[in-house]
Design brief:
Blueprint (H helix, E strand, L loop, with lengths): L2 H13 L7 H17 L7 H21 L7 H8 L9 H10 L5 H19 L9 H8 L3 H4 L1 H6 L5 H17 L7 H8 L4
InterPro entries: MtlR-like, MtlR-like_sf
GO biological process, one term: negative regulation of DNA-templated transcription
Protein name: DUF4145 domain-containing protein
Length: about 200
């Protein structure tokens, strides 16, 4: 394939990362994979996939919440903020830090999101065959504090199960980050995101 054609293919591929779904389908697109992952039969061979998909969906929801604080952001500016090479909000870490600085999340929620980020990074970059039963992965999932802020969640979540804790955390944060600013969902969103607004 000639060089100009290759560049066109890669440019089109990059454009997919900044594409915005319409408002009607966006929630379903983000949360659907999370519903399925928790309901599927246990297969430790899929733990890497689960960690990467859950964290990716959560990261997209964090972008949506951040965008509520940036009025008038065009598609081009959004791409420059989140997707371009060297984008100031190109890493999950920078998004978490800014969300905390803007009051979108509280300190405990920041800790939960950093635990998710650390687990995601371990699965993404390790050459080892990791699972949620790997002691270091399991220990990081134990740091997730969401069940203390929302005790009702403990009834539905097996707290000694790192995989379920991780999936549940990603799902709940995704749900509440995408509802950030919705006054109807305000009470529970405050609990999950650990904010007093």
């Amino acid at each position: 394939m000639n060089q100009p054609k290759r560049q066109t293919v890669f440019k089109k591929l990059r454009s997919l990362t900044g594409a915005r779904p319409d408002a009607k389908s966006s929630f379903e697109l983000w949360t659907f994979p999370l519903f399925n992952l928790s309901a599927e039969p246990r297969d430790p061979g899929r733990d890497r996939e689960i960690a990467l998909v859950c964290a990716s969906v959560l990261e997209q929801a964090l972008e949506v919440a951040l965008l509520t604080r940036f009025p008038g952001v065009t598609n081009e500016l959004e791409r420059q903020l989140f997707s371009d090479s060297g984008a100031p909000l190109g890493s999950l870490s920078s998004k978490i830090t800014l969300a905390r600085a803007l009051g979108i999340i509280g300190e405990r929620a920041k800790g939960d999101l950093n635990a998710v980020r650390s687990v995601r990074n371990a699965f993404a970059h390790s050459r080892l065959a990791l699972t949620f039963e790997t002691p270091e992965i399991s220990a990081a999932c134990e740091l997730i504090d969401l069940h203390h802020r929302w005790p009702e969640l403990s009834a539905s979540n097996r707290r000694n199960d790192a995989r379920e804790t991780f999936i549940e955390c990603c799902f709940e944060f995704t749900l509440h980050l995408t509802m950030f600013g919705d006054e109807k969902a305000e009470r529970l969103t405050k609990v999950v995101l650990d904010v007093d607004r």
